[in-house]
Fold this protein.
Amino acid sequence: MTLLDDLRWRGLLKDQTPDLDDHLAGGSRVAYCGFDPTADSLHVGSLVPIMGLARLQRHGHTPIALVGGGTGLIGDPSFKKGERSLLTREQVDANVAGIRRQLERFLDFEGENAARMANNADWLTTMPLTDFLRDVGKHFTIGYMTAKESVKSRVEAGLSFTEFSYMLLQAYDFLKLYEDAGATVQLGGSDQWGNITAGTELIRRAAGGQGHAFVMPLVSNAAGTKFGKTEAGTVWLDAERTSPYRFYQFWLGTDDRDVVDYLKYFTWLSREEIEALEQEMADRPGARGAQRALAQAVTTLVHGEEATEAAERAGRALFGGDLSALSSKELDEVFEEAPSVEIPAARFDGDGAPVIDLLVEAGLASSRGEAKRAIQGGGVRVGDRKVESLDDTATRADAVDGSVVVLRKGKKSVALARLV
């Protein structure tokens, strides 16, 4: 299967320029994709173009990951409702550094078609304005630019000249990489089609050459909510922003209507493997084997095997496993949204701290009376241990890593008592 055949089967080819199939079939090509440094981490939506570059490399082509250190100072207006807040040069530089580290995980930077990194600040921030207007701006009419859907949707609402110029900056990126690195293909999300084809037009007019391009669809979900957004916020690729446990749980919670598409988009699983998982889901709809395969594959891709194993261990512990098998850091990830209270460690010495009091102090009960009723109802646990008596206490032996005691009331109410 060719690269484009594979992308078509996976539902990842939204549009392409003419002759792209023949161009890619004619030999090893250099292709690039740009990444906007609006934050110091990419998010799960960025995985589609990242995987596009990685798939291209596996088919024998050379990928360039272009970080927008220059265009990030302007901001892409494509299909945005309003003007973006401008970032400082220091913010953009910090974001570029973070994104660069992440991209290096997905691409192979050694071998015959080794991946490369580039930063458009190297040329956009050093080119004189008059040179840019003369050498780039003269090739585009206002009519050509305003006819692009990405711009047309913003003109009536208000579009500054700063953001209006973004299309020309991105077009120049393509020309620059065409001339200096031999890049003949650009890929990106479907919202970038107007900017990308402006680049092919500039290559034709300014260099007499031919650029090629393809775009991939923007990911959505069957529930109608924005992909990559949860109640807790954006799902990031940075483990400090979204822990591997939360990341794993995000994929594990994928709707049945979306999971096969996501297996195609975000994993290296073969057609046969994905179709087998699809059939298993039809035969055993409650088993969620496809979701587990998705969570395992993407978490391993982004965070590594050890992080995936830890996330799975934490999930088992949360739902009836052994909490003592977790570290205090893993507990914090599992119970990231749970309330916590600091309690002097000395209270857990000797006979320990009465569980009734801990439930009140941790906010799991509004009064000692409510705490007593919860214990009598059999719904209170300290760690994995069921509290059987109103006189029960929690000691240091109940603390994970000697520092955190997990208090549960019922199936969903959890709080952490931190020993200080």
User: Anything to note?
Assistant: The chain is about 45% helix and 15% strand. The mean pLDDT is 90. The two ends are 60 Å apart (CA to CA).
